[in-house]
Structure formats: C-alpha cells, structure tokens
Fold these 2 entries.
Entry 1:
Amino acid sequence: EIVLTQSPATLSLSPGERATLSCRASQSVSSYLAWYQQKPGQAPRLVIYDASNRATGIPARFSGSGSGTDFTLTISSLEPEDFALYYCQQRSNWPPTLTFGGGTKVEIK
Amino acid sequence: QVRLVQSEAELKKPGASVKVSCKASGYTFTGHYMHWVRQAPGQGLEWMGWINPNSGGPNYAQKFQGRVTMTRDTSISTVYMDLSGLRSDDTAVYYCARDLGYGGYERYCFDLWGQGTLVTVSS
C-alpha cells in the first residue's frame, strides 16, 4: 500500500503569509494526487485534483505542483478562512486503492 | 441543488451491524461513482471503497473486505453502506463522497460530500 507522509504536521502562520504544504508518497503516484481542506465539524472540500488542477470554486491563491512522489500545496497569501486541516490523497493503479496522508494543520500564529 | 444527504447518527453494540444511507439529488445519479470515507474522532480520513451506481458493482478496500457491503437503489438515487461485526474502533463519522469523474471516466477523488453520519459503537 502506498503511504502518504505530510509535513509539517502543523504550520503556524499569519494572514497574508505564504503557506507551503508537502506530501510525499512512498512510491510514484504519477499525478494522481488530490488535496482537501477540512474545517472543524465539516466534511472535507476538494481543493486540488490531478496534482495541479483547482477544483470548482477554489480561489486562485491555491496552487498545487509535483509529480511522482513529491507534491506541494501552496497558498500564496493566507486569508482568515484558509486556516484549516489539509489532507492529500492518492489513487494507485489497478485495482485502484485510495489512501490519505495524515494531514497538515494550518493555524493562526 | 446538488447534494448528498445521509442518514442520522447511530448507536450500536459491539458485534452488531449498521447501514448508512446517502441520497443524491441534483445530478445524474448513475453518472458518478460513489465512495465511502470514514473519520474516527480526532483522526484522519480512511477510504473504505466505492460503488458504481450504474452497474451496482463495488470495490472495497482490503481492510474492510468481508465486513462491508455497498449497494444502491437507482429508483430513489440512494447508496447504502452496511458494516458488520462492529468494534469500538469502528466508531467514526462515515461520509459518502461523489467521484469527480463522470460517465466512465473516474478520477478517484471526491468533489461532493455528504454531511457525515456518526456511528458510535459502545456496549
């Protein structure tokens, strides 16, 4: 099973700062990598799919990059509503098996 | 309105089974795979499997093979997740989540989520 490792576990930043979140896969997942945002008491929300495509309604300050085993989610300038938990998720080849990383919490400094 | 509405919270005893429903509206039900994802209290996300609402064919994560059954009723645009042999570590919020892909072009990521159903397993 492919393991996703997210770092750091917690990112303490101020509004307006740049956030850089990392997700590393134990083996190549090509570009089959998605990112989700989750706020307390809510279901996750798709932010990025296929490593670099913004989901519908996601602001341009969110961007994704990477392929193979190393991926990054960047929030160019943090807005108050961006402070949340972020998970990466991959799907492996046939039969498709999906796994999530352990999450990165972006908190207000 | 495009949404997924899940059934209410459940309290079950160890060894029992639970069946969670997820009703879709606002889109072509048979066009998108439906996945189930769970989240234990204070923990991360765990994928359980998917069902193809068109054919009814499921694919389960290996961890849940033999304990989980996913079905659908196309007449009411509803999918179900049945988990048997419940243990205390099955206590979690269970989500249904729609696959982003459409019409046979699955993307295996989730663009629409239900509100979650808390299943508590306790004696």
Entry 2:
Amino acid sequence: DQQVKQNSPSLSVQEGRISILNCDYTNSMFDYFLWYKKYPAEGPTFLISISSIKDKNEDGRFTVFLNKSAKHLSLHIVPSQPGDSAVYFCAASFTQGGSEKLVFGKGTKLTVNP
Amino acid sequence: GAVVSQHPSWVICKSGTSVKIECRSLDFQATTMFWYRQFPKQSLMLMATSNEGSKATYEQGVEKDKFLINHASLTLSTLTVTSAHPEDSSFYICSAREGRGLTQETQYFGPGTRLLVL
C-alpha cells in the first residue's frame, strides 16, 4: 500500500503564478519530509525539507507546509518559472533498525507555461 | 554539489544473463548507498541499503540472491541482477549518503539505469 501519495500525476500552471503540489501520507512514524525535483535523464535532486515538528519551511520561492493532523504536506512555488518544469517527488523519512529510509510518492509532473 | 554517477545508463540483455550496474560517488565518500527500483508510473522503491565493508540490508520482498550488492569502497557500490528475467525490467537508481550532516538531506541520487530484459 502507498504510504506516501501524490494524487495528481500532473499539474500545469502559467509562468508567474503559484504552483501547489500536494502529498498525503499514512504512517505516523515519519519524522521528516522532503521534496525532490527530477529532470529527464537525471536523478532526483533535493529541493526542500521539513521536520515533523514544524509546520512551515521556506527557502526562496519554495515553501513547504505540513499539516500533521491531516497527514498532508504541500509544496508551494511562487512565482513559478519555466525552469521549474520537472517531476516533483514527495518523500518521507523514518528510522528502522537503526537505518534511515525514504519512502517516495509517485511524483507529480509540473509544467510551467511561458 | 555532490555528484553520483551510474553506469551503464541503459542496458538490454537476454533473459537468464546477469547484469552489473555501478554506482559511484565522484567527489565525496559515501558511507551508505541505497538502491531503488522504479517501475513505470510508480514511485521509487527502496530495494536495499549498503554500508561500506558490510553486507547489504534488503527490504522485504527483495531477493538478496537475485540482486547482489557489493559496497567494496567508499565511492563504489555495484548491483548485480543475476539470471535476469523480463519482469526485472525496470529503472534502477542508486543514491549515496555523505558521512556527516543532516542525513536526509545529504542523500544524492544517480541518474539511474534503465534495464530491459528480453
């Protein structure tokens, strides 16, 4: 079963507008959440993260919001730029057997139109 | 930033043959490397965690005798798919973690290897 869900496989927004990517999770043991960005033929690159004890983390144009009671997080990109067009993966981290592991969502393909 | 390379980037092989995929950290030492597999339109699924100089830890449902992992040095891990079958066709991606810092954020991914078994 999917412990991390990204229900929107794709999203299209206009340049300059806000992009909101959503992610839901089911496991209360997750203690850290991350967003990765992936371009074609490249590996995912870390974008921004948030600890489970916080509800917001901001880095430039990127802000991640965490609603722990709803087990929901979102990534806001504002203003959106054409170079932001990529697949965005939501990931959650937990520790098992002394090892930290990441569980990924299926990704959301963001297209920012000029 | 830290760079992780994978070789080959894609491979086509016949059923029953073995395929080796290399994962290298180019400018840092990786005490831990991870191997993931991604089927079309699915998420990256962790297959195994390998620590340099010790045996890999496999996730539930992953056959350790089929997916051999060797992490012989701090910059190289290999995944060997033994006796490959068409159902092993997938996108295999590795990541490497630096020894210090926030561990979640210091996991760097390779570009992936696409395997097609005929």
